[in-house]
Amino acid sequence: MSDSDTFEDDPAEQWPDADTQATLDRAAEFEYHSEDLDFESEHANGAWSIRCHDVVKRLGGIPVLNGLNVAIPDETVTVVLGPSGTGKSVLIKHLIGLMFPDSGDIVVHGQSVPKLTMPELLKMRRKIGVLFQDGALFGSMTVFDNVAFPLRQHTDTPEGKIAQIVRQRLADVGLSDAERFMPSELSGGMRKRAGFARALVMEPDIVIFDEPDSGLDPVRTALLCELIQEMHAANGGTYIVVTHDIASARRIGEYIALLWRGRIVEAGDAEKMFSSENPFVRQFLSGSAEALAGGFASLR
Ligand SMILES: Nc1ncnc2c1ncn2[C@@H]1O[C@H](COP(=O)(O)OP(=O)(O)OP(=O)(O)O)[C@@H](O)[C@H]1O
Ligand SMILES: [Mg+2]
């Protein structure tokens, strides 16, 4: 087994050009989205699972989250789309209480995350599955033990039942034959799928994916997107997929939020976003995936 299916984004791509950058920066001065944002209303599919109000977080003196407002609908696949370095992973850390805002609030299923006590926070995290950017598998444990870990750590489930659940999840992600492998023996795509199986094992209400498509070639990215859709159709819940890849957003996003310089500049149902008149949204969503991946990194 090798890493031969990993895929390096080409840093030589130069996007956005000067005109596009100027448009994006003009858009960033004004948060279009917050005008229509009515936290008290309900999304067409039901309630909002997560609401972020004016979240500010400075890291190293830089406002990484810069007055971020967004609501994530329940029972929906939401894509948070943003170039590299715009604060996507930092946002995820705020949603699960691994980082806390300097000001503003993050409300998950009606609970203010920064106000939770540690036991309350741990309880909340059990209902959230996270697929971290690199899979975050424990290198010294087999795939089976990695996927079993949350159940052993947080529940009293007997080993026989754990084995049943783990094997079901590994079958779901197509890794039935790899349960005895160590993470170092897996390809990049297999590591992501193992991370996905582990994220689902506690039957979470919310599943968060940090760049599930990074480092994968386009074919494996498409397969992983399909898997995310299938698992959402089978299990329901709130799925949040954070990515810089427009193709992935188009493929799986039912609701899309665009992140630029620490703010959600626009968000809405995918259909509305892909036919938006907003120049920022049009510019952003018309860029090619490879160009976005390479070009944005230099902006921050
Ligand atoms: N713990 C930290 N201390 C200081 N700066 C940080 C810290 N974590 C993140 N940053 C900075 O915050 C910014 C946003 O980082 P973040 O990891 O959220 O980006 P991202 O959108 O996830 O990027 P990528 O697409 O490359 O994963 C970056 O400029 C990064 O250097
Ligand atoms: Mg990140």
Can you give me a brief rundown of this structure?
This protein has helices at residues 18-29, 32-36, 88-95, 118-126, 143-154, 159-172, 188-200, 218-235, 246-252, 270-274, 279-286, 289-295, and strands at 48-59, 62-73, 77-81, 103-108, 111-112, 128-131, 206-210, 238-243, 255-260, 263-269. The protein is α/β, with parallel strands linked by helices.
Q: Do you know the CATH architecture of one domain?
A: 3-Layer(aba) Sandwich
| Number of separate helices | 12
Beta fraction of the residues?
Answer: 15-25%
Query: What is the strand arrangement across the widest sheet?
Result: 6-7-8-3-9-10
Query: What's the story with the biggest beta sheet?
Result: 6 strands, mixed
Rg measurement, Å: 19 Å
Could you tell me the number of beta strands? 10
Give the class-level CATH name of one domain. Alpha Beta
Proportion of helical residues:
25-40%
Which of globular, elongated, flat, extended, rod-shaped describes the shape? globular
Bound heterogens, unique:
adenosine-5'-triphosphate, magnesium ion
Structural class: alpha/beta
Measured between the Cα atoms of the first and last residue, the distance is 36 Å
Ranges where pLDDT stays below 50 over 5 or more residues in a row are 1-15, 288-300
Strand and helix order: HHEEEHEEHEHHHEHEHEEHHH
What is the CATH topology classification name of one domain?
Rossmann fold
The CATH superfamily name of one domain is: P-loop containing nucleotide triphosphate hydrolases
Estimate the mean pLDDT confidence.
82
